[in-house]
Structure prediction request, 341 residues.
Amino acid sequence: MTRPANRPVRVGIVGAGMIGQDHARRLCTMLAGAQVTAVADADLGRAQQVAGSLPDARALPTGHDVVASAAVDAVLVTSSGPTHEEFVLAAIGAAKPVFCEKPLAPTPEACLRIVEAEMAGGRRLVQVGFMRRYDDGYRAMKQAVDDGLIGAPLLAHCVHRNATSPPTFTSDMPLTDSAVHEMDVVRWLLADEVTALSVLAGRRSGYAPAQLRDPQLLLMETTSGVHVDVEVFVNCQYGYDVRCELVGETGTVSLPGPAAPVLRSGGAVSAPVAADWRQRFARAYDAELQDWVNSVRDGQGTGPSSWDGYAAAAVARAALTALDSGQRTPVVMKGRPGFYG
Ligand code: NAP
Prediction:
């Protein structure tokens, strides 16, 4: 059925937890051209509460009811990672565009099933929530690289620090939940694939939960031979701090910090550090969702694709092997189909 051109995109949300609620608020109060019409969650009471706080939404019993609803043009999957595959596949089966928060799915095999279903349908329906690609600072860095301002990239240095991790965080999660953003953004910045990586976990911070090896260091290698180091430290205590510097043959480019006032007072110079990812990347989340809504309106898939979700999962899989073995580990990945450009 064709959507009338002047009607807002009617979005159904599967997963009404932290980021599902954030995205619902964005769609209803900050972005243009969308309304939320249906919400489901594993906890029906939570879905009812969230739907009740939105102007046009009703709670439905399951995510599959949301996908199937005649009042839903497009689906936003913000449930927990292991449940993403079934809802994304259902949306593809219903030929409805779907925005899926990262990870697209927890394993490369599951991501490939999504890739294959999307290709079988013949058009791009899936956008993955790698919001850093929409951050003004990362976009300026990419522009500088693409314009040749630093020459051929040779090295990248990345830092990913969170003030604290949830108490349930285990040693794989800094790689699969946190550094997965660097795994994606570096592929995008360099237009290159990660081919191998090593992971080191040294002295453990006394502030990390007992089961968590924190911090960790990754060294990623790309097809063209760029080496990328990533410090991932999820209990740094002082705030949320993301850094990135690319070193090229003729120059370097660094990720600017978010605009913030610099205070000179009491004999000291100080500037605030973001408390968390919601604050640091708020504008990027707005921009990625607006881009998705516009792409649904225009009938043209855009942004990070299910292939990007697959690639990130393949790199994350190699990182887990490298963490366990202490060995440099190749990334096992299929060749990119022409469908994904
Ligand atoms: P959360 O607060 O735990 O929310 C997930 C919600 O999904 C919970 O309410 C959960 O219910 C519900 N759920 C679980 N299984 C379901 C199912 N089968 N059907 C419907 N709902 C179901 O987690 P979150 O922090 O919002 O994260 C959600 C996703 O977003 C994760 O994949 C996460 O990695 C991603 N995320 C991405 C970013 C980013 O920077 N792009 C940031 C944060 C989160 P129960 O709690 O009752 O199980």
Summary: The chain has a mean pLDDT of 97. The CA atoms of residues 139 and 231 lie 21 Å apart.
